[in-house]
Amino acid sequence: MPLQQGIQLIVTVAQTGVGYHCYTFDGLALPHPVLIQFEHVGSASASRDMDQLAAALLAELQGSICANRLPAPCGGLATICHALREADCQKLLVLVGDDFTAAVPSTLAKDWFQTSGNFQVLPVLPDTARPRAPMLLSGPLSAINVAFWSQGIEEALPAVFQVAGITAAQPRIFISYRQTDVAAAAIQLFDVLSHDGFDVFLDHFRVPPGVNFQQRLRQELGDKAMVLVLESPNLASSRWVAFEIAEARASGLGLAALNFSGAPLMAGIDPSLRLFLNAADIAAGGEIENAALGRVRAFVRSQHDRALLRRRILLEQSFEQAVVQAGGRLPQRFANGSFRIVAPTKSYHAWLTPRPPELPDYHRAYGATLPGTEAVIIGLSNLMEVSRQRQHEWLAGLCNMTLIDEGMMARAVGDMVRGTL
After folding, report:
1. Which phi and psi angles does 382 have, rounded to 5°?
2. Which parts of the sequence belong to the TIR domain (predicted)?
């Protein structure tokens, strides 16, 4: 069930003595509606940090993510949000703390500690509070992993998006580089980002012997949300990097760059998606100095999340446009992110994925496809290696679903509108 007035995202920010300020959005291709509620533990510093984190989230939504701000049904100020009662809504409480103030679970809404109803809690603490975290977070909070920040509380923003289900549970990135130029930095980034929870592709580690190198690169690119290009002096002479960038563009993946010491800029990468590293940022052995590495990690995480959201939004918009161009009515969109196309003789229930389909996509579609409709999954299946394509074709057949490559979406949508798919 969708939220009131077609709202996809609600952000509520606690206000002392007056309930919550409410901000509502659509224009996000989310698999389900989301409520993000900001609270703090009661101290002045935690209140300031909470306001700063909420402001950063709102700025990101209305800036790089380009969400559409809507009038709030409550008028923008409420004591309790109606989304708390919606079973299909993913609900996240962001609890901001400080170094010394203990969070008292009894002062929080009991709903946030239910085991059902899509309730989750994310404690956010400064890194200086790490040694005291077990004392500051007691009771049900003690079992929840904390998002720590060191330089600024905005560092917790990717964790907020991730736990809310707005971005992927596991971020995925492809590192494109020239080994003879920046191998040490590439291996360092592989290690650091892997420890940060990323699934990182680096050909130095991830292509086993006996595998068709080009086919594996295409498959790995399709599985990722973003390509991180390490711009080095001789990068333009690498045919593999040129191939990777071309495939990324063709598949609508995010492209961002780290520029090493004034190296030539690769064409086609937005200047705002480039982070410059100067000579002082690079150690004698070629690795990135620790002081600069923090900037790189924050840059990569924020650009990854933006890229995945932009890709999901573009895929949804392209699907809707294809339906209209084929002569159909704008498809019905469900709270779980799927679409229904009603043709003269049959109906279709379509599921979109910004990456090649995976087992959870089949499981979700199999359990939630409307009775009497034919299930269709659309994703980047053409980038899979042949053996993997056959496995997915078998799985789609077993689940009585039709698997469509994203590149064939317009033709498939036309067939659905006519009822001939």
Report:
1. -70, -15
2. 169-304
Cβ 331 vs Cβ 343: under 8 Å: no
Extended strands (E) in 233-279:
254-260, 274-277
The predicted structure's pLDDT at residue 341: 93
Q: What is the pLDDT of residue 1?
A: 42
Q: What percent of the chain has pLDDT over 90?
A: 36
pLDDT computed for residue 226 by the predictor = 86
Neighbours of 175 (CB within 10 A): 26
Q: CB of 162 within 8 A of CB of 177?
A: no
Q: What is the pLDDT of residue 76?
A: 85
Angle between helices 290-325 and 409-418 (to 10 degrees): 30
Segment 180-214, tens digit of pLDDT: 899 999 999 999 988 888 888 887 655 655 567 77
Q: What is the average per-residue pLDDT within 335-339? A: 78
Which uninterrupted H or E stretch holds 239?
A: helix 239-250
Exposed/middle/buried for 405, CB within 10 Å: 0-12, 13-18, 19+? middle
Instruction: Give me the phi and psi of 274, to 5 degrees please.
Output: -130, 130
What is the end-to-end Cα distance of the chain in Å, rounded?
Answer: 28
Listed in sequence order, the DSSP H helices in 121-202 are 133-136, 157-163, 179-195
- Rounded CA-CA distance 288/260 in Å is 10
Cα–Cα distances (Å) from 14 to 124, 147, 408, in that order, read 15, 19, 46
SS (H, E, C) 311-365: HHHHHHHHHHHHHHHCCCCCCEECCCCCEEEECCCCEEEEEECCCCCCHHHHHHH
Query: In this predicted model, what pLDDT tens digit does every residue of 60-83 receive, in sequence order?
Result: 888 767 778 888 888 888 888 888
Strand 119-126 and strand 90-96: pairing?
Answer: parallel
Q: Is 96 helix (H, G, I), strand (E, B) or coil?
A: strand
Residue 332 has pLDDT above 60, yes or no: yes
| Order of strands, sheet of 199-201, starting from the edge strand that comes earlier in the sequence | 199-201, 172-176, 226-231, 254-260, 274-277
Structure tokens at 404: 């469509």
